[in-house]
Amino acid sequence: MTRHGTHRLLAAAVVTALGALVALLTGTVEAAALAAPWAALLTLGFASAPRAPITASAQPTVERTIVGDRIGVAVGVTGANGRLTAQPLPGTGFRSNRPACAALTDEVGGVTAWMTAAQWGTHDAGLTDVEVVEPYGLFRTTGTVGQSRPIRIHPSPDTLERLVAPHLVRTTAGVHAARTAGRGVEYADIRPYSPGDALRDINWRASARSTHLWVSQRHPDRSSDVVLLVDSFLESGHDATAVVGMAVEASIALAEQHLAATDRVGLVDMGGVVRWVAPGTGRAHLHRLVDALLSTSLIANAAYRELDIVPPRALPPRSFVVALTPLLDDRFIAGVAALGTRGHDVMVIECGVAASRSTTALTGVAQRLWDADRQMVRDRLAERGISVARWNPGEHLGFTLRELERSRTRQRRPGR
Amino acid sequence: MITRHLSVVSGGGLQAAASVGLAATVVTLIAVTAPASLPAAVRLAVAGLVLLAIGLVVGSRSLISLSALPILGAALASSGATEQTNWVRSALVGSLWFIASELAWEAIDRRDGALRPPDVVARRAFEVATVVALALGATTVGFAAVRVAPTRTIGTVGAVVVIGLGLLALAARHVEARAPGPVEAGQAGER
After folding, report:
1. Contacts of A200 (CB under 8 A, 6+ apart)
2. In A, residues 41-80, which contact B (CB 8 Å cutoff)?
C-alpha cells in the first residue's frame, strides 16, 4: 500500500501559501480571509492523518459459482478512517462490476466488492485494487491486496424437462421404467387373474367386459448407471475449445438431472489424457463430477487410446453410456463402437459448431463430401444400435434428447 | 470526447450543476461588489468560472484546483481599489468557491462509477461543513482582532493569520473526534 497526496493537498497548500504570502506582503487581510477555507482544509486533513500504517486484505467469499452470477470479494482495512473504494481485478473468466465504496470509522472497516463470472472453468480471483481516501481527502493510500485463489465457475446448465430413458437398469429403485413387469407406476399390460394376485391389481374395466378377472401389470421403476463419456481429443481445423465447452455444459446438465433421478452417474474423459470418476450418487458426487469436468483440457496426443484402461468400477457392465463428442477423432469413434458391442447401452450427442456454407463450386463439393463422411460415421454407429443426434450451438439440449429418444424407440433392441 | 465526459449527468450530474451554479453566484457577487472602475476583477472571476467549468467537462481535478487562483486575484484586485476592508465578502467568496470546488471534485469522483452509500455522503458533507465553519470562525476571530487593532500593518496581519491558523489547528483535533460514525450516518447497504 502506497500513500500519495491528492489534488486537494496541492490546491490547499498553494492557495493557503499564496493567501498568507499576499496578506503578509501587501497587508490585505482579504487574502487571508479568502484562503481561510483551504487553510482549514489543510489543518484538518493533517490533524486526522492515520497514526499507523494502513493494512488491507481481500478474500473471495465463495469457492464456486455459476456463469452469470456475481462473486464477492470481502475487503477489510484497518488503521485508517475515511472512504474505502475496492474493485477486484477481473482476470480471466470474470467481468468487473462497479467499484464498491464504504465509509471507514474507528480505524476499521470493510466492503464487499463484486465481479461477474463470465467464463466457465477454474479461474483465479482475489486480487483487488484498494483505495483509502483519508478524511478531508488530502491523502490517499492505494495498492493491490489479497491472494489469488481458484474459483470454480460452473456453466449455467440447460434445464431438461425429461431424460432419455436407459434400456438397461439396475435392480435398485429409481424413476426409469424397466422393461420387465412388476410393481411400479407405469402401465405395461394385462393378464388373467391367478391366485395370489393382489386385489388392487385387478383391472376392473377389462374384467367387466369379460367373464374372467384380469389384472394390470406395471413396469417397476428402476435406477441406472449412467456414464458420461466426454471426447477431449484435440482435432485441428475446428473450434475445439467451443466444442469441448458444449460437451462439458451438456455433461453437467445431464449429470444434474440423472443424479436427481437417483441414477448413479460416472464420468470418463477420453482424450490426450484418459481420466474417470466412478459412478456415484448425491450432491457431493455432483461436485466431484463438475470439478472433473471443469478441469477438462485439450491435450494433443497421437497415442492410441483405448477404453480398456478404464477399470470396470468406472465403467460398470450394462451401464447407460452417453457420449458427448464432435465425432471427429477415429480413436473416440472406435471406442464408442466398442462399448456398443460390449453390451452397454450407448447413445451419442454430436456436439458441433455450425459449418459455414460455402458459395464456390469447389468448396461446395468439399462440403458435400464432408457431410457424406459424417453421415457414414453416424450410419456405422447406428448399425451397432447406437443412436446419434446432433446438438448445434444455441439449441436447447432438450430437443436433441427428444430426437435421441425417438431414434432409440425405433431401434430398441429386444430381450432386455 | 465531450459526449463521453458529459455522461456526468448519470454520475455526479447534480454535483456538477450545483458546482457551476455556485461558482456563477460567486462571480456575480464579485461583479456586483467590485468597483465599476475595475473590470479586471470581474474578468479574473469569470476566468475562474471558465477554468472550473472546463475542469468539470474534461474531468481535470487540477484545473478545478487552479480555478481558486483567479478568484483570489479578483478578490485582491477589488479590495485594493478601496481603502475599506471587506472581511465578510472575502470570507463568503472563499467559502463559496471552496464548496464549488468540492462539489466539482465530487462530481468527477462519481464518474468512476462507485456508488456512494449514505454514510460516505454524510461523512463528506460533514467534512465540508466543518472546513467552512472553521474558516468562517477563524475569519470572525481575525475580524475581531483587527477591530481591536485597526492599523493594517504587516505585523498585525501576520499575527491575525498565525492566530487564525493556530485556532484552526486546535479546533481541528476537537472536531475530528466528533465526526459522524456509522450509527449516526446510517448503514451502508449491499450493492
Report:
1. none
2. 41, 43-44, 47-48
